[in-house]
Specification:
- The protein is an alpha/beta fold.
- It is built from 13 helices and 15 strands.
- It has helices at residues 9-17, 47-64, 68-71, 77-88, 102-116, 131-144, 158-161, 184-193, 285-294, 303-325, 352-361, 385-400, 407-410; strands at 28-29, 35-36, 45-46, 96-98, 122-126, 149-153, 166-172, 197-201, 220-223, 238-241, 331-332, 344-348, 364-365, 367-369, 373-377.
- The strands form four sheets. It has a seven-stranded mixed sheet with strand order 4-10-9-8-7-5-6, with helices on both faces.
- Helix 4 packs parallel to helix 9 and helix 5 (102-116) crosses helix 6 (131-144).
- Bound molecules: pyridoxal-5'-phosphate (PLP).
Length: 416
């Protein structure tokens, strides 16, 4: 176990001065005085997105109207944004599109995976998965009506549960509550040894650290773009299909935009080439324009540097919070070993919901996950070491002065 010794504020500031990613913060809109530790839930707004959206609305939609589908290549946006995402997750050109929501893409991927493995009936997942992934897989199984079953095991038991009965292994690499990270390479290799199709949800991976889908030979993957990829609230998700499977998949959701020639208006469905067949309906151009622009902040960014800084930010936060707040009952809920942790840190915290509300009122934004977890995301492109140090200091103040003991902070909002 490697632990960072506690640093002085001066030492923390010197980390910022030496930070090779420090200049990226200027590319984001971060309100003055706010420490934003929730980029794992809704990424910050890249400044370029404001301009891009304004021009998409005014010039493309406003002036070009329907002509913009051709003159501004609106139809190409899912593949264009998909290729940019591909570069961040080790996926080649033409293997990723940006479309629909993560939930829908889970359904598309699971149904495709089951089709690629027609002789088997079990979908394996773990109980740390995000509920919507499990709901969607169950929905696909029920809808197919072929007797498919969901097998849900503890995250630590996935490896041993892989055997010749499993059609599809569907896992989220990073646990949304604790940040615990699966070993994608090892599990995918094991899945393939027993003839199982491996589907990965990269919702908390893409843009958080290096992912190499092709090196680990994943079959299908999905993920979210409004978290670490900063695509904006509800931005289109992505889906990856390994090149070797693309021609074999007949999409369950066979919409016209996934058709080989939508404007032939042929009543017989024929899938488009490659991953494009995973498109369903008309691309949401405004949302895709925002995403396409947001993805440009990654140009020239070295993901190894992103990961190195992410680990350091998390270690700094853990050591400061443990030193300052353990006496108030906080306990680390995330793995202590950075190698098996994503880019977030969670603590079990008594009265966690009210504590988080009070912390937010004190200009440090994280979030709360039931039953008692306060969660903090670390986004190296727009966070400084000094931010993280101050966040721990402010959390200590909230607890020390019981700033959370306010009736208003006990009432839950619709979104936590
Ligand atoms: C955030 C997240 C989702 C969100 O799905 P939506 O369809 O965009 O609401 C799904 N799965 C995982 C693992 C997530 O972390």
């Amino acid at each position: 176990m490697i632990r960072v010794e506690r640093l002085s504020l001066e030492e923390v500031k010197s980390l910022d001065r030496a930070d090779p990613l420090g200049h990226k913060r200027d590319e984001f809109c971060i309100p003055e005085g706010l420490i934003y530790l929730d980029g794992n839930s809704l990424g910050a707004l890249p400044k370029a997105v404001k301009k891009r959206l304004a021009s998409t609305v005014e010039t493309e939609w406003g002036n070009s109207l329907i002509r913009a589908w051709n003159s501004h290549q609106w139809m190409e946006l899912p593949a264009k944004a998909g290729d940019k995402i591909g570069q961040l997750i080790g996926a080649g050109k033409g293997t990723v599109i940006a479309a629909d929501t993560t939930s829908l893409n889970v359904a598309k991927a699971v149904s495709a995976g089951l089709e690629l493995n027609p002789g088997r009936r079990v979908i394996l997942t773990d109980n740390g998965n995000f509920p919507t992934d499990v709901y969607m897989a169950q929905g696909v199984a029920d809808t197919l009506g072929k007797g498919h079953q969901l097998k849900i095991v503890d995250p630590a038991d996935v490896f041993d549960a892989l055997d010749e009965s499993i059609a599809v292994m569907m896992l989220t690499e990073v646990d949304y509550r604790t940040g615990r990270r699966h070993d994608m390479h090892k599990l995918t290799r094991r899945a393939h040894q027993v003839g199982t199709i491996a589907i990965w949800d990269l919702a908390h991976s893409a843009g958080a650290f290096e992912v190499d889908l092709e090196a680990c030979n994943a079959d299908l993957a999905v993920g979210c773009t409004y978290k670490y990829l900063n695509g904006g609230p509800g931005s289109p998700a992505f889906i990856y299909v390994a090149a070797r499977h693309q021609t074999l998949i007949k999409p369950m959701l066979s919409g016209w935009i996934g058709h080989r020639a939508p404007f032939d208006f042929d009543l017989e469905y024929q899938p488009a080439d490659g991953v494009r067949r995973m498109n369903v309906g008309t691309p949401p151009v405004l949302a895709l324009s925002a995403l396409d622009s947001a993805l440009d902040v990654w140009e020239g960014v070295d993901m190894a540097q992103v990961r190195a800084k992410s680990v350091q930010l998390c270690e700094l936060f853990i050591s400061e919070v443990e030193a300052r707040c353990s006496q108030y009952g906080l306990k680390l809920a995330s793995p202590r070993d950075a190698a098996v942790r994503g880019s977030q840190v969670s603590f079990h915290c008594p009265q966690g919901y009210a504590v988080m509300r009070a912390l937010i009122a004190s200009q440090v934004i994280g979030d709360f996950r039931a039953p008692d977890v306060i969660r903090f995301g670390f986004t190296p492109l727009y966070l400084s070491y000094t931010d993280v140090y101050h966040a721990a200091e402010i959390l200590e103040k909230v607890l020390e002065n019981k700033l959370w003991q306010v009736p208003e902070f006990m009432k839950k909002g619709q979104v936590t």
